[in-house]
Amino acid sequence: MAAFIENGNRFRLTDPTLAPAAAGYLWNRRMMIQMTCRGYAVSQYMDPEPRKYAHAPTLAAQTFMQPEHRYFAHHPGRFFYVRDDRTGALFSAPHEPVRATPDSYAFEPGLSDIRWVIEKNGIRVELCLELPVDDAAEIWSAKVSNIGKTDRDVAFVPYFPVGYMSWMNMGGHFDAELGAVVCTSVTPYQAVEDYFKNRHLKDITFLAADRTPDYFEVSQQAFEDEGGLADPSALQAGGNLAGGDAAYEIPAGIMQWNLTLPVDGSEEFRFVFGPAHDKAEIAALAAKYLRGDTEAVRSASRAYVDEGLGSFEIESPDAAFDAFVNRWLPRQVFYHGDTNRLTTDPQTRNYLQDALGMVFIRPETTRAVILRAASQQFASGKVPDGILLNSGATLKYINQIPHTDHAVWLVIATCAYLDETNDRSILDEQVAWIDSEGTDSLYDHVTRALRFLAGEVDERGLPLIAQGDWCDPMNMVGYKGKGVSGWLAEASSYAMSVWAEISESRSDSDNAKWLRHEASAMVDRINAHLWDGDWYARGITDDGVPFGVSADEEGRIYLNAQSWALLCGAADDDQKARMLSAIDDQLATPYGIAMFAPAYTKMREDVGRLTQKWPGSAENGAVYNHAAAFYAAALYHISDGDRAYRVLRAMLTEPAAADIAVRGQLPLYIPNYYRGAYHQFPRTAGRSSNLFNTGTASWFYRLVIEQMCGLRGAGDAVVIAPQIPSEWDRCRFRRTLRGATFDVSVERVPGLPDQVVEVDGQRLDGTILRQVEHGRSYDVKVKIPSRVQQD
Amino acid sequence: MAAFIENGNRFRLTDPTLAPAAAGYLWNRRMMIQMTCRGYAVSQYMDPEPRKYAHAPTLAAQTFMQPEHRYFAHHPGRFFYVRDDRTGALFSAPHEPVRATPDSYAFEPGLSDIRWVIEKNGIRVELCLELPVDDAAEIWSAKVSNIGKTDRDVAFVPYFPVGYMSWMNMGGHFDAELGAVVCTSVTPYQAVEDYFKNRHLKDITFLAADRTPDYFEVSQQAFEDEGGLADPSALQAGGNLAGGDAAYEIPAGIMQWNLTLPVDGSEEFRFVFGPAHDKAEIAALAAKYLRGDTEAVRSASRAYVDEGLGSFEIESPDAAFDAFVNRWLPRQVFYHGDTNRLTTDPQTRNYLQDALGMVFIRPETTRAVILRAASQQFASGKVPDGILLNSGATLKYINQIPHTDHAVWLVIATCAYLDETNDRSILDEQVAWIDSEGTDSLYDHVTRALRFLAGEVDERGLPLIAQGDWCDPMNMVGYKGKGVSGWLAEASSYAMSVWAEISESRSDSDNAKWLRHEASAMVDRINAHLWDGDWYARGITDDGVPFGVSADEEGRIYLNAQSWALLCGAADDDQKARMLSAIDDQLATPYGIAMFAPAYTKMREDVGRLTQKWPGSAENGAVYNHAAAFYAAALYHISDGDRAYRVLRAMLTEPAAADIAVRGQLPLYIPNYYRGAYHQFPRTAGRSSNLFNTGTASWFYRLVIEQMCGLRGAGDAVVIAPQIPSEWDRCRFRRTLRGATFDVSVERVPGLPDQVVEVDGQRLDGTILRQVEHGRSYDVKVKIPSRVQQD
Questions:
Q1: How far is it, in rounded angstroms, from Cα A718 to Cα A708?
Q2: A-chain residues within 8 Å CB-CB of B186?
């Protein structure tokens, strides 16, 4: 804990060696950047597909975001060398590449900026990275101060490696007119049609400063030479940068100022780094962000992040939880919902779940997402694997592999939107089909999606899995056309039940009846074919072999198959008890509940790619937080708020000192996984993916608001039914819902027999408040029995 | 020159900082490796497509071989740390990553091995890399000797980074039974069909030693930690490797032996490093190469290289030229011809030209290549862009782009094969078509290829260029279907002329007549449409604009358009003189003759990708040795042997001291280019591509043998017509041809009016020796006039 001093909006790490991969992240409408405490960076922007403007020194693969990103000496980063011109002593801020031990160090990622303060040998370097709202550009400010007792001469040398830009063409030069290093390239192509596609691309990477450097260098090789990055030849023996260019050589933006700093003296710098299409664009960006109103830029960037802070705030006995849920969590939800994870073809499943969280931040985004997803549906009712966000986009990577679960998420997102907004007009919106003329209402689209789903079943009536369901790499269970998904059977039943309520509310009783019948028949089939004695099987393979069952040595029990059995109501009380016990026994780890266990250590050709993934990483037996969030949802569903809270809270556990090196991250976001396989691979268990793209964020936020705090819409009414953990004596929260503001205090009262809800001093009969008035503020007090007394 | 001490079969570099990218290369039937003097490596093997077993630390792109490969701190390499256990002093052999200044250093790439001898602080490390003939495996031997005056305790730590193997699964462990570090991975895939494709792949990389290490480490990160590669934490403070594993972490093969070395004492080690499919394969490789007959392995490897040494040897006043041409050049030709550049879909153009050189080494390979290429020809006569070498291969990269020149190379390769072997049976071989039933003779195939070529012309009768000819990136001259290639007009005319001779020899006079007429008509069109006044245009664009003409500011003059005008006989004496003068004025650089000039510095949308490449690199205005070799061929064709020799010799110029950093290579092979654009970018001009894949090697070898030495087959006879450079007073050479051995001495005789050829003491009437007897040795003396007297 010593390393992490939290003040709500900003975290602090005071030792760069304690958690080398600890990173903050920023994004805007065009780009995202993840900066490690030591100065390494992972960034990308949309042009319109994801691209990089700072590259590795080797030709890197174009790929989706990978977990546990690996850093190495020449990894892209942003580095600031400081050389004492009298002694020659060199250090670099934030820490790489020199790795000198700082006298004092603080890495402070905030909501809308990332800051560092490094002190070494009487020099303080303060760094700050901000992003503008609408441009792909990094705005860096740097202040170099003499905090010692004598005058100092120092060389200050920002070094922004640009890396291997292109095998076809790359280079760089200093443009005196722009005051910028301009690194040029041509995106490589061979087919002539790609030339025309590439013409608009931002093939330049530039580093512009707010004042002319004394010296500069553009060639990576000339800069480091024999000295290497830790002791660049160009900075040895008091030398100054030679002012070279890069000609089909790896370029870098490197500038030097020789500063004379009196005691207490300081110098401030401002830089813009990023991609550009041409010189005019560089000039415009430099004018805006170097010479423009810097305070206005900062305010706009804060305002952008504030937009995403949501309409919910909690004050509980758990300050760290509050800070996360009030600021960092909605920020993560907003990142997903506002940028679609910076792809042009989000997986339908992700796209709709990211929109799920947005109902609490900007419900009109959720509305648009639902309608867009439905508009790419096939007339058969089939929901596609990915949603194209612009006309040039194509389905890539995993979106080319057939999965069968997408209809479920269309139902869940639509119901969540209705619960929050009660905007029933969305159901009547006329929506096109991707492969047919004419339009139908959204209601018809969703209904048809479920009818399609109900038809894609085997002879038992269980849903076919094709090459995957929610679990992408479970790709060989059903690739021969026979295997079925137990989880999808449950999720289908659940989706049909909730959609039946919508049908009823529209007096479409035939459909409601059909849905209820289907949902219930599916539950019967689940219990007939998938109950294994103490838990539910995950599915049945092409060869008719149930898996995720007690007979399996690896992959014996899957969390999702239990969570959704609870959600769809398949399990009776005896089954519930057995399942919970099995989960505790087999899936619980010190880092959360694993997605399944034991992890696979060898290929199972009737399960698939999943079983070839590293045991304990990603989907193979990890604490996959998305699955854990489903489990929490199921636990709230069966009113086990304490257990649910523990599942959620485990995702945020601030790493204890001993764990920091393992987790390697600050709890600024919920990562998509912590490594599991705790019993098989204890050394690496608990390690974070360091990847903040995950449907977990939306579910976590929704569960805290709608279940833990228990304030949610339901039809025309509002439900007030908190399920706070028993270790909390009280909590307060505030949220807006249906245009009204609710100030809610929840308090445990010893000896109280039942939960009591008072609205504006009036005791509510039950948990339902009807007729919420737009614009009104409600003062709500919830008294709940104290469970402590039972001991 | 000081840095390069040559002994014919082995070069020597004595300072690793002088030419950091200097590299030797080895290959066998399964793999190739290029090792720099400092320890960095680029290697790949066939499985069946090209794959890597040692990776960068980041997810690298799958791509074709790129020129001017960039090295960086964490680039794959093979490193051997030596730590003095009393003082803690550390160095690494060959040089990286510690970069300690050696007391003595030698890098000695040989024909079938690569050696180093490094001395530092009284310790000598001798390293040797060899490849077996048929396995993808590196065999390393290392000897550590105490050459000082006191006993020494040293830790010897071989470190073989394995890098980022796979995003799906990677790890490693020490297998005590094998005595090997075994790094495992699963080649990533998403589509289920790829699982079945990947199942056979060698997803393991291993390092096995001939004795059990005292300590080991498998995790890259655990090894280097805060110390970094230059001072790994695991080796600091006298520590020993911790014996860890790698679990979804970047693995490395790292072993440690703590040695006590008395004065003059030494220890020897042997390692195998490479890919494997399973443990059994590792065990087999270790048994063969660690515990087997090491001398037999070495002999086999030498024998393999010797197989490729060809049937030609020269002794001239230029010893460096002799060493290159006698050993390194045929070795490079053999590499191409025996491995097809380690691809499964060679470009047809490359495949046939690589086979051209093989006529002097293993003509049966040339024969097989010609027949295979013809068997993939379309029934229309069209020759495909690439030739598939196995049933799973597909056309990739540039082979998916339509080019129009392939027929030309089929003619040239076939004629070269006939000249060398007089094996006319090849012409009657029955060959299938790729898209039609039945077979036809090779003669018919080639003839039909030319008929197809003759039909693919514009209204002027000039050949359409589509998206490229010999020049791949000239992809926008004719993409609209109208642009024509001036070079291809010349090459077509040339090919038709030489094929007319074949037709005549078969008494197919109709065809011969048609070919001669077409060739001659094409020459008329060339002169009508492409002569620009002082040289020939390179082509005419889709919009009817001639380019490569005096009106162009960039790309004014192209070498190929002149060379092939000479070869096809389009130019009269006045035109020749003007062209040669224009070439001297505009294309000559200190590093050879550029392919065109001035290099393009901006996009020309009517020429294409070529103009977007880096000016001076690769095809954009470089000294592209393949084009220079064509020019040399043309110069021999017009009997300008002096100029031709200068063009060829420039490809081998051993870098002068000042150039070493620029060229950065040893003259062990002809690289595909030296950077050109000498007048525009003098700093980088002359820099080598460091890429040994090039059709230049075959042409160079052929020109030396058939033109400079002038001993070649022609129909049933043999021609003896040397064109040695006038600066040579004499030379001797020996070659086998048509089953006979020719020992030829060439001598300049002052005052001699005409060249005189004596065979076994009998003066030959002219230059043609008829009726060569198989098995006989001919003693040939050629006396040529001394040109010096003219001065």
A1: 15
A2: 612-613
Residue A440 catalytic? no
CB B122 within 8 Å of CB B18: no
Burial class for B208, CB neighbours closer than 10 Å (0-12, 13-18, 19+): buried
ipTM for the assembly: 0.94
| Nearest by CB: A164 against B70, B472, B608 | B70
All residues at 6 or more sequence positions from B658 whose CB lies less than 8 Å from its CB, including other chains: none
Cα B548 from Cα B534, distance rounded (Å): 11
Q: Chunk chain A into consecutive blocks of 10 residues (it has 791) and report each block's average pLDDT, rounded to whole numbers.
A: 54 82 87 90 88 88 83 95 97 97 93 95 97 95 98 98 95 97 95 93 97 97 95 97 96 98 98 97 97 92 91 92 92 95 94 98 98 98 96 90 96 98 98 97 98 98 97 96 98 98 97 98 98 98 98 98 98 98 96 96 96 90 96 98 96 59 66 93 90 95 98 95 95 96 96 94 95 95 77 42
Rounded CA-CA distance A630/B781 in Å is 91
Residue among A772, A25, A61 at smallest CA distance from B58: A61
> How do residues B281-339 score in pLDDT, each as one tens digit?
999 999 999 998 989 999 999 999 999 988 899 999 998 899 899 999 999 999 999 99
Residue A502: alpha-carbon gap to chain centroid: 31
Which among A230, A398, A614 has the least Cβ separation from residue B190? Answer: A398
- Backbone φ and ψ of B24, nearest 5°: -105, 160
Cβ(A56)–Cβ(A75) below 8 Å: yes
- 3 state SS of A64: coil
* Residue A120, phi then psi, degrees to nearest 5: -155, 125
Closest CA to A169 of B449, B755, B602, B363: B602
Q: Is the Cβ–Cβ distance between B26 and A22 less than 8 Å?
A: no
Distances (CA, A) of B42 to B23, B66, B277, B416: 10, 11, 21, 34
Whether the CB-CB separation of A338 and A26 falls below 8 Å is answered with: no
> Backbone phi, then psi, for A436, in 5-degree steps?
-155, 155
Chain B residues inside the 8 Å CB shell of A675: 248
For B279, the enclosing helix (H) or strand (E) is: helix B279-289
Q: How many CB atoms lie within 10 A of CB B621?
A: 34
Q: Are B675 and B687 in contact (CB under 8 A)?
A: yes
Contacts of residue B663, defined as CB under 8 A and 6 or more positions apart, other chains included, come to B19, B655, B674, B686, B687, B688
Of A318, A385, A440, A472, catalytic: A472
Contact between B398 and A614 using a beta-carbon 8 Å cutoff: no
Q: Are A467 and A477 in contact (CB under 8 A)?
A: no
Bridge partners for A167 per DSSP: none
Residue B65 has pLDDT above 90, yes or no: no
**Residue A593 pairs with which residues in a beta bridge?**
A588
Instruction: Specify whether the CB–CB gap between B743 and B660 falls below 8 A.
Output: no
Would the pTM count as exceeding 0.80? yes
Task: Show the domains of chain B with their CATH numbers.
Answer: 3-305 (2.70.98.40), 318-390+399-655+665-704 (1.50.10.10), 709-785 (2.60.420.10)
Nearest CA among A302, A309, A338 for reference residue A326: A309
Distances (CA, A) of A25 to A160, A328, A670, B719: 18, 11, 12, 74
Q: How far is B70 from chain A (nearest CA, A)?
A: 7
C-alpha–C-alpha distance, residues B474 and B607, integer Å: 6
Q: How many angstroms separate the CA atoms of A241 and A235, rounded?
A: 7
Give the number of other CB atoms < 10 A from CB of residue B773.
Answer: 10
The rounded distance, in Å, linking the Cα atoms of A335 and A339 is 6
